[in-house]
Specification:
two-stranded antiparallel ribbon, about 350 residues, BirA Bifunctional Protein, domain 2, alpha+beta, 11 helices, elongated
C-alpha cells in the first residue's frame, strides 16, 4: 500500500503543469512544503515493516528529489514564459528614449548669481530660522508692540504660540548675527519669507529675499550707493542707471527705494516699467541706531547700511516673466526653458 502511494505521487509529479504562479504554489504546497503528501509519507516511515524500510526509504528519497527537480523546472518555465509575455507588443527596432536632464530652477539661477556678485565684493552668506520669535522679526527691528508699522507686513502667526511667527523678511538673520557677534559685519541673507497675502500674478504668500548688511566704523550712505551701483551693473548691464527715492522703513534711517532704468524698453516705455522707464528692485537705508542698540552695538561707534530685494522680482525682470505663480507651480514646460544661467 505504501509503495503504491509513492508510485501514484511520482506519476502526478511527472504530469504536473504550471501555467500561472497559483499553479506553481499549489504544486509546492502538495509536494514540497512541510504539510505535503511527501512529508506525510516520511512521517509514516515508522510504520513500515523492518524488512521493507531500506527499499521504502530509497523510494521516498527518489520521490522527494523528483518533486524538488520538477518544482525548479516548472518555476523556470514559468519565468521564461513571463519574460516572453512582457516583451510581446514591444517593437525592439525602435530607438531608445534618451535620458532627459533636468534644468536649474530660475530662482536658483538668480539666487546664485546674486550671491556670486556680492561674494566678489567681500560679503559672506548667512542664514537663520524661518519660524522666528517676535523679538527677532519685529521688536529688535524697531517695530514697537502695537505700533502701526507692524501692519506694513501681513504676518502668519503660530496659533499655539503667539510669540512665534513665520518670518516676514530675512532681517531676523541680521539681528541674530549682530546679537551674537561683534562688528564688522558684511553679509547677505538669502532665504524664503512668508506674508499673509492673496495669491495672484503679482503677489504670493511665500517668496524669496536677499538682504544685505554692512556694519563697521565710518560706514556712510555713499558706501551703500557704491555697493548698489556695482551690483546693478553686474546683474543688469553696464548701461543700467540707478536712482534712490526717499522712503520709510522702521529699521533704517534715512531710507530709500532703489529703482533701475528699464533695460527691456531702453527708455521707450513698456508694460514692465509702466511707461516710466524706471523699475523698483529693492529697499535700503542706513541701519537705525535703535536697531544697533537693541543688538548690543554702540551706535556712537558703529554705523551700517542694509538693503533687501526679492529674488522673484529680479528673476521676473531678467527673464521677462509676468506671473509670479509660475515659480512655485512646478510646470515642467515652464522650468525646461531655463537650461543655463545668466
Amino acid at each position: 500500500m505504501m509503495f503504491d502511494k509513492v508510485e501514484e505521487y511520482k506519476a502526478m509529479i511527472k504530469a504536473a503543469e504550471a501555467k500561472a504562479a497559483d499553479d506553481l504554489e499549489q504544486f509546492r504546497m502538495k509536494f514540497i512544503s512541510k504539510k505535503s503528501v511527501v512529508t506525510a509519507l516520511f512521517n509514516d516511515f515508522k510504520n513500515v515493516p523492518n524488512d521493507q524500510k531500506k527499499a521504502f526509504g530509497q523510494a521516498l528519497n527518489e520521490l522527494k528529489t523528483l518533486a524538488q527537480d520538477k518544482f525548479k523546472s516548472l518555476a523556470e518555465t514559468l519565468d521564461n514564459g513571463s519574460s516572453e509575455s512582457a516583451s510581446q507588443g514591444v517593437d525592439l527596432t525602435l530607438p531608445d528614449i534618451p535620458n532627459q536632464n533636468g534644468s536649474v530652477h530660475p530662482l536658483t539661477i538668480t539666487r546664485n548669481k546674486i550671491i556670486e556678485i556680492f561674494e566678489r565684493m567681500g560679503f559672506n552668506v548667512a542664514s537663520g530660522p524661518e519660524i522666528e520669535e517676535d523679538f527677532y522679526n519685529f521688536t529688535a527691528l524697531n517695530f514697537p508692540e502695537n505700533h502701526p508699522a507692524r501692519e506694513m507686513q501681513d504676518t502668519f502667526f503660530i496659533e499655539k504660540n503667539p510669540d512665534k511667527v513665520l518670518r516676514t523678511h530675512t532681517s531676523n538673520v541680521q539681528i541674530r548675527m549682530m546679537e551674537e557677534g561683534k562688528p564688522p559685519f558684511r553679509s547677505i541673507m538669502p532665504g524664503r519669507v512668508y506674508r499673509n497675502e492673496a495669491i495672484s500674478a503679482r503677489a504670493h504668500c511665500f517668496f524669496h529675499q536677499v538682504e544685505g548688511l554692512y556694519v563697521d566704523k565710518n560706514v556712510g550712505f555713499k558706501d551703500l550707493k557704491q555697493t548698489v551701483y556695482h551690483f546693478v551693473k553686474e546683474m543688469f548691464g553696464e548701461n543700467t542707471k540707478v536712482r534712490f527715492r526717499p522712503s520709510y522703513f522702521p529699521f533704517t534711517e534715512p531710507s530709500a527705494e532703489i529703482d533701475i532704468s528699464c533695460f527691456i524698453c531702453q527708455g521707450k516705455g513698456c508694460n514692465v516699467c509702466k511707461y516710466t522707464n524706471w523699475v523698483e528692485i529693492a529697499g535700503s537705508g542706513m541701519v537705525d541706531p535703535n536697531v544697533l542698540a537693541n543688538c548690543g552695538i554702540d551706535p556712537e561707534e558703529y554705523t551700517g547700511f542694509a538693503f533687501g530685494m526679492g529674488i522673484e522680482r529680479i528673476a521676473m525682470l531678467k527673464y521677462q516673466i509676468n506671473d509670479l505663480r509660475l515659480f512655485s507651480e512646478n510646470d515642467v514646460r515652464f522650468l525646461r526653458q531655463f537650461q543655463g544661467s545668466f
